DNA sequence: CGCGCCTTTGACGGCACTCAATGAGTGTGG
DNA sequence: CCACACTCATTGAGTGCCGTCAAAGGCGCG
């Protein structure tokens, strides 16, 4: 997924403070979502704590200010699927119907900005640009989910790992595009990729021995991006 | 890959509006999507022909009037993922960004109603109810996709087949909820469920021998719904 | 009737899972 | 500061589910 449109939130300069609209000197092409800022409040969640639970009524939407969040679905017998990992700048909960269909848990310590859902709805019913933004967000999420269907349905373990590392690399605009932070555990990765923790380890070990990546604590370094991309077998186009 | 798309434009029977989706006896609270009807035109597509291709610019959105459609994604080497099957009454193409990320192909002979995307956009920018409807549609699609992630990532072959049969049963409000039409080939089912055609056959054979279902041409009959539901291991809630 | 396509069934093999043990990193209390 | 406990990651051995390869039905159609 090449330069896939990512949910990019412009840095809200002052996440904690209310924006005085009048005092803004020259508002850039503003993100419609900025309209929400004045209704937001910050929330800190500790690592491994639950932010919201599958089936909860959707009371709030969230933006991640820092940290990493996983969205989790469970089967009765404990089998787990991590639908996605969300990083700083990402939004979630906006696509909810009346209830959430995923739990959300903090992978690391997390700071969120939380917006009342009724304000989201109110803005969607009164501002076309805002409604449009919500719709585009949903479309992007849907596209990402579709890519994941291909990954889970048809890719081998090696391809899944390669795709995952590349995806995380693209989502982190870290100044160095070779270092990829992976704040989540091997278990989380496995449950995201439809593998077991052992398989994740083994594939990473193979990639390391081949010189494709270097494995470090909390992340990997991409040493042969072309090789990794080849291995990822991304869909055409 | 398949032959070229044959598009037969039939005169829309009712240029005005109200296409009578399912001949509702009473003029219910109207669907915001009805606003689109006056801009729609009917299109017939023959079985196995392509409706739109992955990567195409999104010119149109569609509603299925009759028949069955599959949404397909391909890897370079030909591996295939069928993202979803769509039946009469279902809509697709509304969630597109500028391009489609799935191809759409006719599983059976299909009649579609086609709406210019620019009209969809125009209505979304001028009618809140319409924008709301689009957003809800995207949310529903997203929820379905999430369920499929669990299926592909964590369920066994038997569970996938059971889940699929039950899902198709629920989507077809056929007067008899035991008979489930399956217009798609075993290959299509396999590519939807992340299995091979042989595994699909074998699992169906097992279910048949167990008396859970009866396998007929073009569909199955559910003989033990409770057993099937147990086997499907649906997520909690 | 024969051809082609799809489905079904069988035999076999491999990729990824399971079970198990060891290693590495972190936090805690003596 | 170090021993200990605990968690997570890594590696190995063996197994099993499902994929691959192959052949035999079943059904429609010319």
Q: Please trace the helix and strand order of chain A, writing H or E for each element.
A: EEEEEEEEHHHEHHEEH
Average predicted confidence as pLDDT of chain A = 88
Distance between the termini of chain A: 8 Å
Shape of chain A: globular
What report would you give on this structure?
Chain A is of the alpha+beta class and about 240 residues long. In chain A, about 35% of the residues lie in helices and about 20% in strands. Chain A is built from six helices and eleven strands. The first copy, chain A, has helices at about 115-125, 130-155, 155-170, 185-195, 195-210, 225-230; strands at about 40-45, 50, 60-65, 70-75, 80-85, 90, 105, 110-115, 180, 215, 220. In chain A, the strands form three sheets. Chain A has a four-stranded antiparallel sheet. In chain A, strands 2-7-4-5 form a four-stranded antiparallel sheet. Chain A has a three-stranded antiparallel sheet with strand order 9-11-10. In chain A, α3 (about 155-170) packs across α6 (about 225-230). The longest helix of chain A has 27 residues, at about 130-155. Chain A starts with about 40 loop residues before the first strand and ends in a 5-residue tail after the last helix. Residues about 1-20 of chain A have low confidence and may be disordered. Chain A binds a DNA duplex (30 and 30 nucleotides) through α5.
């Amino acid at each position: 997924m090449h330069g896939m449109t990512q949910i990019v939130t412009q840095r809200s300069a002052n996440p904690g403070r209310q924006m005085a609209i009048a005092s803004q000197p020259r508002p850039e092409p503003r993100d419609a979502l900025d309209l929400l800022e004045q209704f937001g409040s910050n929330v800190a969640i500790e690592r491994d704590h639950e932010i919201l639970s599958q089936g909860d009524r959707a009371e709030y939407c969230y933006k991640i200010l820092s940290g990493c969040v996983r969205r989790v679905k469970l089967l009765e017998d404990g089998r787990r699927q991590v639908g996605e990992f969300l990083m700083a700048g990402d939004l979630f909960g906006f696509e909810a119907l009346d209830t959430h269909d995923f739990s959300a848990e903090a992978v690391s310590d997390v700071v969120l900005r939380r917006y009342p859902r009724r304000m989201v709805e109110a803005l969607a019913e009164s501002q076309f640009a805002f409604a449009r933004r919500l719709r585009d967000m949903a479309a992007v999420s849907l596209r990402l989910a579709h890519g994941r269907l291909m990954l889970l349905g048809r890719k081998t373990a090696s391809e899944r790992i390669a795709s995952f590392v590349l995806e995380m690399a693209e989502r982190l605009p870290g100044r160095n595009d070779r270092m990829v932070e992976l704040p989540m555990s091997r278990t989380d990765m496995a449950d995201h990729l439809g593998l077991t923790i052992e398989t994740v380890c083994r594939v990473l070990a193979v990639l390391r021995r081949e010189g494709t990546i270097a494995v470090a604590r909390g992340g990997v370094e991409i040493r042969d991006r072309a090789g990794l991309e080849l291995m990822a077998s991304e869909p055409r186009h």
